[in-house]
């Protein structure tokens, strides 16, 4: 990273760290995400854990971990919409997927392969260049286009140990308009 890019990135991190966090409003009713995510999962994940990151971050407790947790959950929950069996990418993200993965199913397969390699918890995402990347624990990344929470609280209540089924279903609740706005 060049010096100017590094300075710009550090300035962005400082703004994020100093930010007063507000929990992003869930874009739909919790029940509208089912069967991809149950109301019980949303109550716990959104209502308890995400809220906890926001509250602790605003109190200055936990520093970077809490700030990053609030930041990532904000991105994760803002990209949701009511469940739809047929929910395929549109717009710029569709073009990016075709260029980098040939097809939506090709991208889903590649993400599943990378996600299943993660030992423990973390996040998996597609960046603005169409590359699949992972985040161990929490970390602020400014190049996220599609973000998937890979912590147990995102899938264990609904899927038990079947993380692969969580990945198969998460695509059915993603709002491609929101995701496309990250590419503008």
Blueprint of the fold:
Layout: H1 3-18, H2 39-58, H3 63-78, H4 91-101, H5 104-115, E1 122-127, E2 132-136, E3 144-149, H6 152-159, H7 163-170, H8 176-181
Antiparallel strand pairs: 1-2, 1-3
Task: List its traits.
mainly alpha, 184 residues
In short:
The protein is 53% helix and 9% strand.
Question: What can you tell me about this protein's structure?
Answer:
By secondary structure, the chain is mainly alpha-helical. The chain has one domain: Iron/manganese superoxide dismutase, C-terminal domain (minor pseudopilin epsh fold). It is built from eight helices and three strands, in the order H-H-H-H-H-E-E-E-H-H-H. It has helices at 3-18, 39-58, 63-78, 91-101, 104-115, 152-159, 163-170, 176-181; strands at 122-127, 132-136, 144-149. A three-stranded antiparallel β-sheet has the order 2-1-3, with helices on both faces. Helix 2 crosses helix 3 (63-78), helix 2 runs antiparallel to helix 6 (152-159) and helix 4 (91-101) packs across helix 5. The two termini are 22 Å apart. The model has no long low-confidence stretch (mean pLDDT 92).
